[in-house]
Amino acid sequence: MKENRWYIYQKERFPLAMYIPMILAFSFSAISYSAATLDGRITIKALAVSFYVSISFFMLLRIADEYKDFEEDSKYRPYRPVPRGLVKREELGKIGFVLGVGQFIICGLYEPRLLILLVVLWIYYGCMCKEFFISSWLRKHMGWYMFSHMLIMPQLDFFATACEFLPRPGVQIGSALVWFIISSFFDGMVIEVGRKIRAEEDEEEGVETYSKLWGKKASVGIWLGAMIISFASTFFALYELGGAALGSVTLGIAIAICILGGIRYLKNPHGKNGSRLELLSGVWTLVDYLSLGIIPLLL
Fold this sequence. Notes:
By secondary structure, the chain is mostly helical.
């Protein structure tokens, strides 16, 4: 039986089997950690709103990429779903509109003050869609391109935690949340760099990867550096709640595995050693989020 074209699209460009557990872990950690800094009570409504807005926002980012990169994809990556005609950009645009309306309605019904944060996210998203109106310069400076786009993460992190603390009357934001937001920001960098480090035979003409732009050693070094900063931030975030020791064990094991993966790639940058770094990026992020979400519940 022929596969549904939307099923094929999501499998190639927005694999739900990867995004659902990762964003669920992200949302859970945001709600759990925020609650732990207060009275430890987690509400399902807060988790549901955080999850919907987060996963739909990541889908909006993917849709924006389909518009921004269409000409480049048509020239260098015609095998992708949109250039090869599997789905149309206009169809994705309509899906994006529906997702945005859903965000507005859900936030308005749950906690109207969240709409302020949502609008801030939308404004920054609009700037990202236009590549901050300096597209040519950013594309010549990929480090700044990555940094400018990764700044959406702290905003989404804050929104996710606000789903838990904002409905509570008179609650003040704890300083511990800053460490959570910093950790999540660098988790985003781990994902971004890891997915653009490739085996030599997987490099493509016209496709900018960090392994090509920065070289293998530098790109792996930056990837691991972002991971180490994420580790340190999570350590301090858990230290605020008295769970640093347990977090150090779980994250220490995870980062050791990632370091071995990086060394293996540098020794032999071929075959699956490149794609394995993207997988390890996801594993690290999942472990980090679950540590931030589960450990506070055990204390």
